[in-house]
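ugh ok fine here u go
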Amino acid sequence: MGLGEKRKIKLGIEELLSKRGDLLRGARVGLICNQASVDHELRHSADLCRARDDFKLTALFGPQHGIRGEAQDNMIESPHTFDAETGLPVYSLYSETREPTEAMLEEIDAFVFDMQDVGCRIYTFVYTLANCMRAAQKYGKRVVVCDRPNPIGGEKVAGNILEPEYASFVGQFPLPTRHGMTVCELAKMFRERWDIDCELELVLMDGWTRELWFDQTDAVWVLPSPNIPTLDSATVFPGTVHLEGTQMSEGRGTTKPFELIGAPYIDPAAFRLELDSLDLPGVHFRACSFQPTFQKHAGSACGGVQIHVTDREQFEPVITGVATVKVAHDLYPDRFLWKQPPYEYVYDKNPFDVITGTASLREALQRGDSLNVIRDSWAANLMGFMSERSKYLLY
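structure:
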């Protein structure tokens, strides 16, 4: 593709409503969506579905952060309510339940899932999909999944594979940190590999190919969650999300979440110098100070770095994020702290282990293992995953 050229694509929701409406003819529909569920003209999927006369939209289901993305903090539950725009009931799937109940499904025949994922295992939206698939299996409903681009491309895979004993709502399945799949591909994998045997229909995109990043398509970016405001934040997220398992700030409460990282005890120049010495590809670390307005270290000045990705094809987000944790841990052994339980209601495990899906990464960092040793420890399992993944790729 030429510089600045964008590939024309049709999103799954656009394909569903223009060509595959037969999948929902006569059905009562529950739509799983949030603020990023829009078409190329920024029309919301709820409005598009509500305008149809061949099926009836009867309920909305909201993920973490709420149906309009209004819940800013990371673990604030959203209440059940009614949507001001449509007047429809909104059932929160980040509330006292993560899985739809039988009562929630009384007025629907089929789910439609239309959510923008970010390409990282450590993100809850695809597990909301899995939970809706489980409910559909239990109560005899259908699930129609509308695909959207993996914003950081569908080719590269990286990181450790989640170990089942560390499963949580930020990681239900043995996936690597960066999985390189779309939501339709993951839904197919959930059904066939992990036996969530619901009636499933996949509505693919037209025109998307695996090498494309989101900004190489003509789709419109809307922040999928409050702290992924831009594609830049999504690009670094598979790495700096690891900081959620520490007492360091991952930049929540700043205008550059997941790009600004640090803590009050960090000397920015020393931190940057140590990170630069690792010679990580495709990235520049700029020493800086910042003051979060909420979340960790709110109102306190933090020293740290801003992560500037200079070549995203060479950039390795996962090992870069691990490097930032390692350097802080090694430079400040008396100040660096892991986050304390619980995390996502897992009370008996270290939050860093819950996020990474293993205890071995934390243990490697505590031992002082090099980044090369850590990266090499992922290799065999990643090769096995790549082989298994190939069965579910749709593009």
